[in-house]
């Protein structure tokens, strides 16, 4: 099932007065949006607040939304605009906060430790990328938006999206190698 | 700014990585997804969003339905927009109108007796050496006696002024009668108690060379100048009034 249509259905149910629809929408989209903001460089509390702002804007503009099966892209477009506004106001860049490291600090078997270290280096490599490259990986890989929607969101041709995604993955791999060598 | 290398493939037909590298990059993408789980939102996230939306809608609904709220919002907007203009006018002097200033002067109450006394000229007090000077003591005595004569004139009700019959330049030719008239004139007009040297010299001269009538006419002046009271013979000529001080003494 297309996930965008699921969100469209949830919004339609919410508009029809189904109280469970909004909770489902929050359950599915809120962590993704908060992850988007945190990986772009926001602190956890700010990411939470910005995520709330996205929902508020979406709910206040429900009457203007035309169901098109691109609800995720709609959410992420609003999130991206909010993040750009926030960056302009803050006028400074915060290094990506590694929320996963805060979540799981328990000691474990050696394999688990190696996996955690590797995951931490992947996140660190992502954080070290140029913001535009990181944003592309965020939308295309982490948010799993179709290339067509990424192209519309970033206003670039779809072929450029494809090539840039591979370029971005190569850059991530290079960064990861540097971090592995340093380790 | 473009963060990607140029030239970039611009279409789907552009050269892409080989199959082995593509597989490696896709695996890296999967690893990236696995390494970046989405964080959980805070409990009560949905309620917080609902509250913010509800608050926003409540405000708009209030503005739509309440005339009072619309009026208050209008006043607020106008105040906010007018404040900078008013501030600018206050800062720029050539934009400021000349205004008529309405003010009141404080009406002071009439001065009290104490305040009036404070406004009178201060009479210089004599120094120690001056107070021991016989001439100064004598002049004070003369002035006091002439003052007493003036006061007794007023007390006797003899208020009608009498013109002085002698001009200051002719003291040496003044007769006893002239000097008597001068005495009456000074008493009636409350004239300055400072006596011209020519007048006192002419009085002293006539007291020496004059006859009984002259001395009777000059009895008041003699009392003023010397402190000597009139004799009974002099009083017979009627050169006094009831309560005249030179008679009492």
Task: Name its key features.
heterodimer; A: mainly alpha; Arc Repressor Mutant, subunit A; 2 domains; B: 249 residues; mainly alpha; 12 helices; 0% strand
Write a compact overview of the structure shown.
Chain A has helices at about 5-15, 20-40, 45-60, 70-90, 100-105, 110-130, 130-140, 145-155, 160-180. Chain A is mainly α and about 180 residues long. With about 250 residues, chain B is mainly α.
Overall number of strands of chain B? 0
**Domains of chain A, number:** 2
Estimate the helix proportion of chain A, in percent.
over 70%
- Evaluate the radius of gyration of chain A: 18 Å
Number of helices of chain B: 12
Mean pLDDT, all residues of chain A = 83
How many helices of chain A does DSSP assign? 9
Order of helices and strands of chain A: HHHHHHHHH
CATH topology of the largest domain in chain A: Rna Polymerase Sigma Factor, Chain: A
Shape of chain A: globular
| Class by alpha and beta content of chain B | mainly alpha
Tally the beta strands of chain A: 0
| β-sheet strand percentage of chain A | under 5%
Radius of gyration of chain B: 57 Å
Structure write-up:
The complex is a heterodimer of chains A (183) and B (249). With 183 residues, chain A is mainly alpha-helical. Chain A has two domains: 3-90, RNA polymerase sigma factor, region 2, helix turn helix motif (Rna Polymerase Sigma Factor, Chain: A), CATH 1.10.1740.10; 106-182, Arc Repressor Mutant, subunit A (Orthogonal Bundle), CATH 1.10.10. Chain A contains nine helices and no strands. In chain A, α2 (19-40) crosses α3, α2 (19-40) crosses α4 (71-90) and α8 packs across α9. Chain B is mainly α and 249 residues long. Among the domains of chain B are: 47-95, no CATH class; 136-248, no CATH class. Chain B is built from twelve helices and no strands. In chain B, α6 (134-155) crosses α7 (176-189). Classes of the chains: A mainly alpha (183), B mainly alpha (249). At the A-B interface, α2, α3, α5, α6 and α7 of A face α1 and α2 of B.
